[in-house]
Request: fold
Amino acid sequence: MKPKFLMSIVIALSFAGAVAARAEALRISPEWLKTNAATHKIIILDARLPENYSMDHIPGAISFPETLTYQQKAVSGKIVEPDIMQRMVRERGINQGDLIVVYDNGELIDASRVFWALEVYGLNQVRVMVGGYTQWSKSGYPITSETPEIAHSQFVPSIDHRKIASKFFVQLATANPRLVIIDARPEKAYRGIESSAKRFGHIPSAINIPASKNLQASSRVGEFQGIIDLRATYSNLPLDKKVIVYCGNGRVSSTHYLALRELGYDVSNYDASWLEWGNDLNLPVEK
Reply:
């Protein structure tokens, strides 16, 4: 990595929190999709496993399983390389500026991960359907096993470095009071009682807000908190600070990314997350 580029990252991280992003409505309902799918050009992506998609899916939906967003999911959550993402997006006929709706089985974890990955690569009109396929089918809306015909696009990715945090980013954040690190893992993992990596504990200076906090108290499938309740969950988090979220492999933390993006925070997801940090003996750990 060139020194000039490194310096630009340092400067960007130092001042990223100075201006908060604009709050946006990033979640849509099954009712909205059913009403608008026939009259608007909407790319619908199914983030479930391919075998689930093959059985049945929303009409017009294209399979884009969450597993495709990783280089090696078992090793770390590092996002797929630009050339591979370009090929996958082109094969699905997606162009810059297209309105994209992502859904999963209803837990919003896989859909959030795909949402984040697409935003990292410059697609800025992505939405997540709450309730997922479970709510769609329960509502009696049409389903199909037919796959749509797709005309390949000429999409060229552009990495949005504001939305992804590397190990280097996080190292800077541990010593910068203008950056906040959120550990989205359960409290036991944060406290060092359990771990998916060789070492136990958490990244220094990180605060623990488990991803489950994004769900309504009922914890039913796909029931993310509303905006008012989300604001209460993150009420102690200054809106003018840059936020970095992580979990075990950058999957569950993507729900934090979605929630904080919707609230207007400048947030990035540390994709390699604890699997990288906890296995690197050169990095500090706190308990």
